[in-house]
Task: structure prediction
Amino acid sequence: MKLLLKITFVLLLLPILTNAQQTLSLENCYDLVNKNYPLAKQTELLQQKSAFEIDALNKGKLPKIDLNAQGTYQSAVTGLPIPLPNVTPINKDQYRATLDVNQLVYNGGIIDANSKLKEAQTKTQQQQVTVDLYQIKTKINQLFFSVLLLQERKAILISQQDQLDSKINEVKTGVKFGAILPASEKVLEAENLKIKQQLIEIQFDKKRLLENLSSITFSKIDENTNLIQPIISNDFSTENNRPELKLFDLQNIQIDASKEIISKNNLPKINAFGQAGYGNPGLNMLDNSFQTFYILGLKANWNVFDWNKSKKDKQALSVSSAIVSTEKETFLLNNTLQLQEMENEIHKTEAVIISDSEIISLREAVVKSSDSQLKNGVITSSEYLVEFTNLYEAKTNQKLHQIQLDLAKANYQVSKGSPLTPERGN
Result:
């Protein structure tokens, strides 16, 4: 019975433990956006739309079949000036039913060219979706590293709180034996309460940020989720893999496909046709009776002169291609300037972090000295608390600068279009 109760307790506790241990990486957030964001669904929808449109274009290669029927009454009909034997006048009421078939024989490959243009348009539209989704990464970075900073602040505050609790116990002992004034304990306890307030604020701030991260990734992220701090290398190579660059290339491919259609529009077009019918009169207008008939033939059409319309259309497309080239050049220029600023910010933050380590080392020495002075009654707890707080402010600043550095590196890789390296846990 006891064993059964233990098993039941473990099973009930398992979801809580699993939830408490849930982790989330930056790459996970990127993947969630690419999977769940409403805009991401357009990629597959655009592919489906293109498949239907291309299939509809290819139907133009199949024969076109029309069934026609008509009945008319004419006020006058063609007649002969003199009556002829065995020839009856044509009826004023006439009837005809026909089956018409038209088959494309040659059109210069215009259908295939339109299919290629449709494929190029679809790839361009899909790449635009990729570009729009990619731009969300910067928002994810901001939210993700803001939560990371809160996690680091919480860890520092807990460490500060533990050390402060230990110091409060020491002071209580000193007060008990009359070595330290009773007010010293109150000062430290007030500081302890202040830390508890900060921990409460961090809890609610983290919950708010994770809710925002949940909204942008369209997923449920629990407030107990632990974010994994990524390792991001200092890759300052000149290679640029931004999705916008591929978009510019696809736009030029689409323009080339449009030019190909213009060229093929000027080629001759040949169609075969046939007509089978039944009517009164038939093809023999002198036979005033219902007859069957058929017609077979070929029809060719060639627009040999279009007043340079095709030439002007191609020139307009060439200008469009030049516009795309200038947009690409402008994008690369602005992106290069942005990367230079980011690289400078990264180097500056790295230098600041080195200084942080030196400051912390000095602050620790001061706190150690103050701790000894407090025990011997040389200084008050308020004076000790000043140095103690300065030490943890220095530690907090170092973590802040480290998170700022990681955020700057992540934004740099996003701006350059490079993937992040594997990630490490806290």
